[in-house]
Amino acid sequence: MIRLILVAIYLILFLVLGIPALLVLWLIGKSDPGRKDRAAKAIVGWGFRCIAFLAGTKLIVRGTENIPADSAVLYVGNHRSYFDIVLTYSHFPGITGYVAKKEMLRWVLLKDWMKAIHCLFLDRDNIKEGLKTILKGVEEVKSGTSLCIFPEGTRNRVNDTFLPFHEGSFKIAEKGGVPVVPMVILNSAAIFEDHLPRIRKATVIIEFQKPIYLDELDKNERKKLGTHVSGLIESRYFEVKKEYMP
User: Fold this and answer.
1) What digits encode the pLDDT tens for the residues 89-129?
2) Rg (CA), the chain
3) 218 phi and psi, to 5 degrees?
4) How far, in Å, CA of 235 to CA of 239, rounded?
5) First-last CA distance in the chain
6) pTM flag (> 0.70)
7) I need a labelling partner for 200 at 20 to 30 A (CA). Which of 33, 49, 179, 239 fits?
8) CB-CB neighbours of 8 under 10 Å
9) Is the dihedral of CA 74, 59, 188, 236 positive or negative?
10) C-alpha separations of 205 from 34, 75, 88, 131, 187 in Å
11) Which is nearest to 150 in space by CA: 132, 168, 129, 128?
């Protein structure tokens, strides 16, 4: 329980003591949005690295050379843990936000930091509002900001399984004209979810696969893009698991 307490205390202190930083970022953003984005990424990235350290997490990251350097991308990954965001964020090379559920807007201060790093909030129960969020995502990637989405729609509760990928999750890449970068996340639930409420040391592997350019796919693959990408991630997931955790 000590690790859980340390992480909880750190998170509370970060949010409370970070209020002046939020104000400074807001002021910087008025005259220099790019500088504000870089500063917010640095602060949040540092905060996430501290949380990973307190949790005792060893992280192995592979495939960063597969991330295109000349455009924004849509990162797509499997989702088993709250720590998936904590562990992936610092390894995105450019300004990157997440597509999160709208319920996150209830969390005071946390939502403000999420907005500072270009997170979007998706209403899964309202088609009209959900479409607005997707269109906002299209604007973001067209302006050079990458986004990360977990197309299963919710955190999967069962290890070594995959929920169906929602096809609508890929509209941002399709309409925004950016590549999809599949992302394999292995063993993240071993940090927390596998033994609630304790946080334990764990080794987590994140692997970025080669980008998928939608205009290079055949008609059938593009029509069933969610199934196609899910299959790529699932196949590689078990290959990585066999390599690291035979």
Assistant:
1) 999 999 999 999 999 999 999 999 999 999 999 998 888 99
2) 18
3) -80, 170
4) 7
5) 29
6) yes
7) 239
8) 12
9) positive
10) 31, 16, 10, 33, 7
11) 168
CA atoms of 233 and 150, how far apart (whole Å):
12
Residue among 32, 18, 36 nearest 109 (CA): 18
If DSSP codes are grouped into helix, strand and coil, which group holds residue 2? helix
Structure tokens, 44 = 């949040």
User: Which ranges of the chain would DSSP assign to H, the alpha helix?
Assistant: 2-17, 19-31, 33-55, 83-88, 110-116, 127-142, 171-176, 219-223, 225-244
Tokens representing residue 105 in the block: 């807007």
Q: What are the pLDDT digits (tens) for 64-77?
A: 999 999 999 999 99
For every residue of 182-246, DSSP letters joined together read: EEEEESGGGTTGGGTT----EEEEEEEPPPB-GGGS-HHHHHTHHHHHHHHHHHHHHHHHHHH--
137 class by beta-carbon count within 10 Å (0-12 exposed, 13-18 middle, 19+ buried): buried
**Is 121 strand, coil or helix?**
strand
Strands 57-62 and 202-208: parallel
